[in-house]
Amino acid sequence: MITPPEIKKKAERKYVSFLQSLVLNTPFEKLVIRGDKTYTKSSLPEFEKEIQLIITQSKEKKGFGYTLEFQQVKTKYLGTQDLPTSIYFDTEIDFLKFLKREKEVELFRESIIKIIKTFPELKEWIIKNPIRIIQNQTEWESILKVCQYFTQNPNPNLFIRELPINIHTKFIERNQSVIKDLLDILISEHINKEEKQFEKRFNLKYAEPQVRFKILDREISRKFFLGIDDVAIPKSQFEALDLPVEKVIVSENKTTFYTTLTLPKLEKAIAIFGSGFSVSNLKNVSWLEDKELLYWGDIDVQGFEILSQFRGYFPQTKSILMDRHTFDKFFENDNGTPSGISAQLNLTDKEKQLYDILKLNNWRLEQEKIPFDYVNKYFENE
Known about the structure:
This protein is α/β, with parallel strands linked by helices and about 375 residues long.
């Protein structure tokens, strides 16, 4: 026989559709709870105890909740007994008081009135997402302020905390998920649909990755950077640079990037800290397309995979100090990190041969283990 906790569980399952009916202004209809129609108790006291349990939690005893309808049924073991054949909630109040949701639904009604009055076009979203209305029920006034600002200013070009909205400075950051869903509807023609990051999607400024580089030509350093030769700037600013350089060295690791300070000063050259797979930050730097590009990474599988990635952006890229001679000369039997990549790589035949050897044996020679004088001698001969 069904128990009061099971009745409550089944009633909870009807709660979402009830909320949807409120949005649609559908009158409340009797909510029927399907009961267990099998009665297997062979002991009359046990049977009576179960019957009394569901009766004590019913509207008849509590003044609200589910109503029971009984019918005389002939049972296998207990003879003819009055058994509950129908369980239902007759009114909205009965249903909500039983679930202890009266206040929640009162706030839900207030919220949907406020939202639909401000943005009628959100009604369909509310119908599909009633629980999210409840989850955010203390925040709707502020959420709607944010939405109103964006509908009037769909291309703010400001940082989130610069937006002139009378809300807590961290409010948007804390409520991005629901705000995103609403703005996707309200300003759909202005959003960058392919972008998942909130700031990029909604035309806001954001903390860009920095590109760090060294100017290896003293004249360029003096003329463009007041003599500074170690610079880090946002990616978009780096993309917009217009420097008279011809050669660009990209170094995988920070330590070897520092090594470029010891290089012989090179005319019309800069060195960039690639930071491993973060070389993806350089893929839209169009002014690199006609430069001589030299990539210097670890002699391990990841080093060659990053080289392949970078060469995918700039096919003219040449690897340096990543050859078999350098590997054999300085290898110290270090293990690398296994790679699961099986795709075809953008490598030359010699690079691919070394890559396969490294992958098979899980070997690694870090850039840092190549002596400075060997590196300097290489560039002196460049």
